[in-house]
Amino acid sequence: MSLTIYGDSMSGNCLKVKWTADKLGLAYDWVEVDVVNGQTRTDAFRTLNPAAQVPTVVLADGRPLAQSNAIIWHLAEGSELISSDAYLRAKTLEWLFWEQYSHEPYIAVRRFQKFYLNTPEADIDPKLRVRGEAALARMETWLAGSPYLVDSRLSLADISLVAYTRVAPEGGFDLAKFPGVAAWVKRVEQDLGLS
Amino acid sequence: MSLTIYGDSMSGNCLKVKWTADKLGLAYDWVEVDVVNGQTRTDAFRTLNPAAQVPTVVLADGRPLAQSNAIIWHLAEGSELISSDAYLRAKTLEWLFWEQYSHEPYIAVRRFQKFYLNTPEADIDPKLRVRGEAALARMETWLAGSPYLVDSRLSLADISLVAYTRVAPEGGFDLAKFPGVAAWVKRVEQDLGLS
Fold it and tell me: Is A50–B91 a contact, with Cβ atoms under 8 angstroms apart?
């Protein structure tokens, strides 16, 4: 049995797992799970992941694992996508935790509301734009001095952060205001064979 | 030079770092940073952490690191607080990411609004209670079958999750409704020498 990825193709969190597996050359089965239509809230799915979230993977030995950044860390451990230097490993994790706390809840959520739910601008919480732009500004500052988020080559931090940054315009964020981020998105997309 | 922890003693995210360092017997200097009074938003602090958040640590070699769960992972790497089994390591990370995405933003935020800002109940977003209780319910289900979150002994997952769970009552959450969680809080507090 090989790796099985339960994911929703609209979800950047799920695509992170696919891209990491592809970059590492891992064989896997992709099982499409439609979040909007409640397919994560079935009893069968909750057996795999009680938190009822995608992505969830079932490893080759049959054991389940959840949380996008925990999954990609597990898959990439020992590969060139995670530095072998202890400090750079920690900085990679720092970006992954920052992504889930200070980036995804604003950029991914605004994109979901605007692009998938067609929520009118006036009904979207203004703090999603303010905090999303703050996240992009923080990345812009970093990327002014470095081609990638950790060290000078592609790492899990780039894979994790690019997932929702590349679709930020679908959430109404203008990447032209963040040229360093826009250039980094293109660089990472090319590294991942997405462009 | 030893480890320096920049933290706010009211913040569970900062206390995680202190408890991990204490449990590991690491020497450190604690520098109190008052978040409510803007001490993270100074230029000097932003040099350490552009995200202007505590905890931030400066390692013995002078390099800074942020994000509570990335910091405790870095400090505890190679210790008994992280399993040496690859799958259990991944499950530990799964809990850490879940904590920052599905637990802290509801339980810690409601506690901050209620306990520190004295926000009237009627002005607190109702979803903080709903999602905070969902997080506690998920922990209750797990802890019905296990004394700790990973394996059968204390790990970083327990240290990370106990930080805001133990003060959930300050946010108006009734732990009597989650007896398995309440018993686990006591167990972890005892392990950490907090009770």
Answer: no
Q: Which of B3, B16, B46, B97 to mutate to test the interface with A (most CBs of A within 10 A)?
A: B97
Q: How far is A188 from chain B (nearest CA, A)?
A: 23
Prediction ipTM score: 0.96
Does A91 sit within 8 Å of B67, measured CB to CB?
Answer: no
Q: What φ, ψ does residue B159 adopt, rounded to 5°?
A: -60, -45
Read off the pLDDT of residues B113-141 as tens digits, 9 standing for 90 and up: 999 999 999 999 999 999 999 999 999 99
Among A189, A188, A163, A192, smallest CA distance to A16 is for: A163
**Structure-token match 């989650």, residue found:** B178
User: What residues contact B143, with CB distance under 8 A and at least 6 apart?
Assistant: B149, B180, B181, B183, B184
Pairing of strands A28-32, A3-7: parallel
* pTM of the predicted structure, to 2 decimals: 0.97
Over its C-alpha atoms, chain A yields an Rg (Å, rounded) of 17
Residues of A with CB under 8 A from a CB of B: 50-51, 53, 59, 61, 63, 65-71, 73-74, 77, 86-87, 89-91, 93-94, 96-98, 100-102, 104-105, 138, 141-142
Write out pLDDT tens, residues A7-52. 999 999 999 999 999 999 999 999 999 988 899 999 999 999 988 9
Cβ contact B49:B31 at 8 Å: no
Q: Please name each of the domains of chain A with its CATH number.
A: 3-76 (3.40.30.10), 86-191 (1.20.1050.10)
